[in-house]
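Quick one: structure tokens for this chain, please?
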Amino acid sequence: MAETTNEILRVEHLKKYFPVPNGMLHAVDDISFTLDRGKTLGVVGESGCGKSTMGRAILRLHEPTSGSVVFDGQDVVAMNKAQLKALRRDMQIVFQDPFASLNPRMTVGEAIAAPLLVQKLYSRKDKDGIQKRVREIMDMVGLAPRLINTYPHELDGGRRQRIGIARALALKPKFIVCDEPVSALDVSIQAQILNLMQDLQDNLGLTYLFVTHDLSVVKYISDDILVMYLGQMVEKAPADKLFSKPMHPYTQALLSAIPIPDPDKPMNRITMKGEITSPVNPGTGCRFAKRCPYATEACTSQDMVLTEPEPDHFVTCLRVQRGEL
């Protein structure tokens, strides 16, 4: 992939394996991409494909098995604990379940203030300074000041997720991994949170890695979209191009499942058949081959290579590489 002066994140050959009784589970297997400042990379795929694990490995919440993560010119994988703690100011995460990620014994104000105290940006004695900063952040994410002394169980899901976003913003980060931040919310609340996140991105220059399984959400919020299948990247392209011209058979099947709000228009849904390849010691070849209608013997006998058949459109498919699809 070409160098860009606006690049903030470069991931190369990232792998994360977990030991299991029968071998190694290949949760993330040889992922490479770049991300520019102020942009959003959406990551989609079926449940269990490794989306969240990849996001956490980039932040080193999971230790990568191998590979390189360079953030703003810094080698994240090579950092010691002190360096990694300092990096937390620039790299943050918003979790999927806003209730599970909040300490039920902490008030809203205490939860937002916690990162400020951990990073020692404020002294515990500076109560006025802390409260002023907390109220600034609450206003930024649309939380009423009167909620500062309430507890998570007293609030609805939308407000809880605003607390999670506020906590991530407390340290003024440059990059945020958004791990399915709206999947646990009602549709109307999802729209509010998505609009809030876009406004924050525009105002603060934030960069997002947005993990989701909701295709309508990822199309709405993303500049580029990365499609994963069983730990591997199968396709990456600008959002409009991916939806208008998907190249990988898995992406085509995934997009064909999007409901069309017109009863007279045919769905043309692609039904995937066959066994799912085990992510434990998966072996050589394309992991989608058992379900792919275009697979040949060559697809199962050699590892797939990431190619760029069109500018900024990357695909991991042997038959696309050969021009057969």
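The chain has a mean pLDDT of 91.
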